[in-house]
Amino acid sequence: MTPIHARSESLHRRVRAIVQAFERSRAAPEPFDALAADLVRFQAATVPGYRRLCLARGIDPQAVVRAEQGPAVPTDAFRLARVFAFAERDAAFVFRTSGTTLGARGSHAMRHTRTYDAAALAFGRAMIARDLTLPVPVVTIGPSVSEVPDSSLTHMYALFARQFGPSRAVEMTFVHSGSLRVEALRECVAALRPDVPVIVLSTSFALVHLLDALGAESLALPARSRVVQTGGFKGRSREASASELRQGVARCFAVHERSVVGEYGMTELSSQFWEATLVDEGAAQGVYFEPPWARVVPVDPETLVPVSHGKIGIARIEDLANVDSAWAVLTQDLVRRVAGGFEFIGRAAGAPMRGCSIALDEMLSASP
Predict the structure, then answer these.
(1) pTM of the model
(2) pLDDT for the residue 103
(3) Burial zone of 364 (CB within 10 Å; 0-12 exposed, 13-18 middle, 19+ buried)
(4) pLDDT tens-digit profile of 272-326?
(5) How far apart are CA 275 and CA 260, in angstroms?
(6) Three-class SS of residue 292?
(7) According to the model, what pLDDT value does residue 365 have?
(8) Which residues contact 308 (CB under 8 A, 6 or more apart)?
(9) Would you say residue 237 has pLDDT above 50?
(10) CA-CA distance, 53 to 3, in Å (whole number)?
């Protein structure tokens, strides 16, 4: 193991220790800022673009003591630069963005997914499966990993199917070669046991297509089932408002609207954010919660300074599980902090915002 890999593994273990403490309902073993500061130092030493970004901002990584002091990497950098702390040959996994909005696809390389998997399972179980006696059937209205091996969402959904579902269950995925297999889904739902709840994993655009295909038909799921939906539409289906989609999905599967749970994530991250409607009767729909190892901070699109509570800004996402890439990313998603979490308002239209553009230029600069 190289010295860089050894340092990386030490940081990965610290992140997983926070994840394990969360699973055991214990306090985190160290402060968020302490680990964030060490990640700033590690990535400044191993990721050339991040080192340039720190230099351009006049930031001494050794002097960083709080997460807010470390600059965030624009998500566009994952399309245009090397954003990983190891040799390219050491990448065991490369997750890629869809590339439908900007042409070139962003790439998030990982040496392994142990920390990604641990974080996804811990928070996913807490937000969509904590009240269930596992295993239960897991139905994925999406492609399989074998069909789309470079999708982080497909990877996560397959992980959930393996961990939450029966160990020898037949893989239940219902999108193949881009086509929704409606008849196969009908047959699957009809064969489900009526006394065992089901977890349905899907994307927004697949659900819109399903609702269009079914019309007024219902595919009633067993009691206490839940449906996870994530992602935008990206030009592949008609768009539907969040409330319209939630109502349609609840009707289609005969579940309560609070059992239709939204997930917010992206290829450039190792952590996800969830609506809490299944686990907190007071939680509002459309409000996403963070795990203890990640934070979402709305910032001014020009200055990148945090905006006041309740104001809309672009999302600066601090993700401690992104050990070997960018521990903080700067998106063009519009968000605002509300009680208990954050709201996703939508994606900023048009050219990259000034703050993102400047940060990207600084990362791609030819300076040392």
Answers:
(1) 0.93
(2) 61
(3) middle
(4) 999 999 999 999 999 999 999 999 999 999 999 999 999 999 999 999 999 999 9
(5) 9
(6) coil
(7) 75
(8) none
(9) no
(10) 23
Share of the chain above pLDDT 90, in %: 81
What pLDDT is attached to residue 104? Answer: 78
Strand bridging mode 226-230 / 199-203: parallel
Compute the residue count for the chain: 368
Cα-atom radius of gyration of the chain, to the nearest Å?
20
- Name the more confident of 100 and 88: 88
Q: How far apart are CA 32 and CA 67, in angstroms?
A: 8
**Residue 42 and residue 322 in contact, taking contact as beta carbons nearer than 8 Å:** no
Sign (positive/negative) of CA torsion 126, 131, 134, 140?
Answer: negative
CA atoms within 13 A on the CB side of 193: 6
Over 90: is that where the pLDDT of 169 sits?
no
Q: Would you kindly state where each structural domain of the chain is located, as residue ranges?
A: 1-86+293-368, 114-291
User: Residue range 24-39: average pLDDT?
Assistant: 98
Closest among 114, 164, 126 to 291, alpha carbons compared: 126
What confidence category does residue 105 fall into, taking pLDDT thresholds of 50, 70 and 90?
A: confident
Residue whose C-alpha is closest to residue 83's, from 289, 266, 326, 261: 326
Buried b (16+ CB within 10 A) or exposed e, 223-244: ebbbbbbbbbeeeebeebeeee
> Which CATH code for domain 114-291?
3.40.50.980
Half-sphere exposure of 102 (CA within 13 A, CB side): 17
Strand, helix or coil for residue 184: helix
Cβ atoms of residues 263 and 229 within 8 Å: yes
